[in-house]
Write a structure and sequence with these properties.
Elements lengths: L22 H28 L3 E8 L11 E8 L6 H11 L19 E4 L2 E4 L12 E4 L6 E3 L2 E2 L2 H9 L18 H7 L10 H5 L1 H5 L6 H11 L7 H12 L12 H5 L6 H16 L4
Parallel strand pairs: 1-5
Antiparallel strand pairs: 1-2, 3-4, 3-5, 6-7
């Protein structure tokens, strides 16, 4: 199993009756919801019969608050296929027509927000960017590996964000510039790819070192540090040495084993491994002393 679920679960909090809502009103609302669900399911069945093609999804399910979902499993969904359909489109169709409890993150649907990174057919991918036409069936969809599963396809990203913030991803010069800080075309070109990171966590999930070392900064965080270290507009020597000290720590750049897995899965084609190696060279040069 490529997913990690918490070993212990806490009991769900007792639901309290909303103020001003009677038992009869709740029953009526439940009936309306069930009727709407049946209509949606029937519509999906009609669309599936009428469709020229359909796609078979095997979707990971887990919910610690529902008794019959506390044991991880896979559910099957059959979705009518249309040209240009992405994995995210299919998931949304399954949720809207078959099971409204199916849970996953998504937002912009344009490969910019990074919220819908999942493990699709054995590889970390952005679902909104992944065409179903390129996937072998059944399309197996799981949460990102090496992270705790909150529910279904949603993982806990708190540790990932902590590592990203640990490299201090912002300019730190104390001197307020008196004029516009210009950047040369050459320098902009050098750091251009590193600025494309969308914090999706795909690279961290693919990294075997990060899977075994919870303190390792990880490729995304190191790439973010690269973006600021290499920016010529922050040229104060003390700040550069400070950034290198963060990266030179035991769980920093030297833990990278140059496996290229992070580079292979990055949805924005950032040369993450190359950036890590370049920072290793900078660290070595900084520590060289000549007498």
């Amino acid at each position: 199993m490529s997913t990690q679920v918490p070993e212990t679960e806490t009991e769900a909090e007792t639901e309290t009756e909303p103020a001003g809502e009677s038992h009869q009103e709740r029953r009526m609302a439940d009936k309306a919801a069930k009727r709407e669900y049946r209509e949606s399911e029937k519509k999906a069945e009609d669309e599936l019969r009428a469709a020229e093609e359909s796609v078979h999804l095997k979707v990971f399910r887990y919910d610690p608050e529902v008794e019959d979902k506390q044991e991880p499993r896979f559910d099957d969904f059959y979705v009518p296929y249309t040209k240009g359909m992405t994995v995210l489109d299919a998931l949304m169709y399954a949720r809207d027509h078959y099971d409204s409890s199916l849970t996953f993150r998504h937002s912009c649907r344009q490969a910019v927000c990074g919220s819908d990174a999942m493990f699709v057919n054995g590889r970390q991918r952005l679902c909104c960017k992944t065409q179903l036409s390129e996937m072998a069936e059944p399309v197996r969809i799981e949460p990102l590996p090496h992270q705790d599963v909150v529910k279904d396809l949603v993982v806990d990203m708190e540790h990932f964000y902590d590592q990203m913030h640990a490299v201090e991803p912002y300019f730190q010069s104390e001197d307020v510039p008196s004029e516009e800080q210009r950047q040369s075309r050459e320098n902009r070109e050098k750091i251009k790819m590193s600025t494309r990171c969308i914090w999706c966590g795909a690279c961290m999930s693919s990294c075997n070192v990060a899977a075994g070392d919870n303190e390792y900064l990880g490729p995304a965080a190191i790439n973010k540090a690269y973006r600021f270290y290499m920016d010529e507009r922050e040229d104060e020597e003390e700040l550069k040495e400070h950034r290198l000290r963060i990266l030179e720590q035991e769980h920093g750049v030297w833990r990278c084993q140059t496996q290229f897995s992070c580079t292979e899965v990055c949805p924005k084609d950032i040369p993450l491994t190359e950036h890590i190696q370049e920072l290793k060279r900078e660290a070595v040069k900084n520590n060289l002393k000549f007498w």
